[in-house]
Amino acid sequence: MFINFWYAVERADKVSNVPIKKRMLGLDFVVFRDTQGVARCLANTCCHRGASLAAGKIKGDCVQCPYHGWEFDGDGICRRIPSMGPDAKIPARARVDAYPTQERYGLLFAFLGDLPQAERPPILDIEEYGQEGWAATIQEFEWPIDYKRSMENGIDPAHNEFVHDTHGFSGERDDYRVGPLDMRETEWGTGFYNKVFAPPLAEKRMREASGRAEATYIDAGTGHHGISSIWTHIHPTPEMFIHQYLFETPIDESNTHMFLVNCRNFLPGPEHDERFKERNAYVANQDRDVLTDLLPVLTPNTNIHEIFVPADHPIGRYRERVKEWQARGWRIDKKTLRDTRDEVAYAIPSPARREVKGWVLEQIPLLPASA
Ligand code: FES
Ligand SMILES: [Fe+2]
């Protein structure tokens, strides 16, 4: 798992003035809205005696710890220590990490790391979101898998034919092969477009909307952005576009919370949303059934115990990027974390740690940066 990326935390409409506890990257966070309506995300462990802030309540712009009532504002700074009385001078170390937040696409994102604003990898952009002629739905899935397994599945052009009867022919075609991949490299990810021989659309309404009743070659593309976001563009006809964006948030090493934003430029009415969601869930569950049965459970860190063929090139590139981000010192040292977590309460370092010293919670252990 990696610090220094934006992660989807929760659907924005679920964030209110009732604090909620969210586990991400193996640690807990408290999420709430302040009186201005701004969504806040703090480390959940109180710096006094380690209580769970999310079990407390919101008082004004602060979350109040359930144990001794210390109040922390949206920047994580302690504003009140009831046991010291109303005129108390609050110790400077009485603060918890607060993480930058953004609300986009109906989701709340938090930047879980300490990079200054200018250096942060951006949230995956959805150009068409909210644009005239486009409709969008949001879905969530929670699967017992390493998020990287799902990332690799998302950018894997060779599985569709076998896993998804909606996209392929279940391996029945003797002339099947993955055609050439038109690779696309960006600063934060690798993707590709290719031509896919696709069966007629299974859904009558979509078939009628597309006017296409025969199997044909369609344009499709997919790629990753950063450590845990994926874009997928499917063009069932030259005019009909389905653009999907998957934001995968590791709950811990082997559990993942996924947020799927599905955009379409046809059948825009909300009365069609449910059918699109059903279809997405059908396809997603086919992936889940394969992914929950892979060994090893965690995505390998080397390629030597697997075989790579040309269709696996995007996965190979993803793994190279993962190594680059590890070399920057962004990867959590999961072994140390596992061995010490009963004795040490950790926090993901927030940007304020670059300015202010003397934090109560220890920073989560990270693998060392390398050249
Ligand atoms: S543990 Fe939070 S106020 Fe004491
Ligand atoms: Fe899939």
Description:
A hairpin with a 2-residue loop joins strand 10 and strand 11. The model has no long low-confidence stretch (mean pLDDT 95). The chain is 16% helix and 30% strand. The chain contains six helices and 20 strands. The chain is α+β, with helices and mostly antiparallel strands and 371 residues long. It starts with a strand and ends in an 8-residue tail after the last strand. The strands form five sheets. The chain has a seven-stranded antiparallel sheet, with helices on one face. The site of fe (ii) ion has 5 residues, from loops. FE2/S2 (inorganic) cluster binds next to loops.
Keywords:
371 residues; alpha+beta; 4-stranded antiparallel β-sheet; globular; binds FE2/S2 (inorganic) cluster; binds fe (ii) ion
Q: How many β-strand stretches?
A: 20
Structural category is: alpha+beta
List ligands, each type once. Answer: FE2/S2 (inorganic) cluster, fe (ii) ion
Major beta sheet, specifics? Answer: 7 strands, antiparallel
Roughly what fraction of the amino acids lie in strands?
Answer: 25-35%
- As residue ranges, the low-confidence spans are none
Ends apart, CA distance between termini: 20 Å
Helix/strand order, N-terminal first: EEEEEEEEEEEEHHEEHEEEEHHHEE
Gyration radius, to the nearest Å? 23 Å
The number of helical runs is 6
Strand-helix topology:
Layout: E1 5-11, E2 20-24, E3 27-33, E4 39-43, E5 57-59, E6 62-64, E7 71-72, E8 78-80, E9 98-99, E10 101-104, E11 107-112, E12 135-143, H1 147-154, H2 160-163, E13 182-186, E14 189-198, H3 204-210, E15 216-225, E16 229-235, E17 242-252, E18 255-264, H4 273-291, H5 313-327, H6 334-340, E19 346-347, E20 362-363
Parallel strand pairs: 19-20
Antiparallel strand pairs: 1-11, 2-3, 3-4, 4-9, 5-6, 6-7, 7-8, 10-11, 12-18, 13-14, 14-15, 15-16, 16-17, 17-18
Fe (ii) ion binds next to loops.
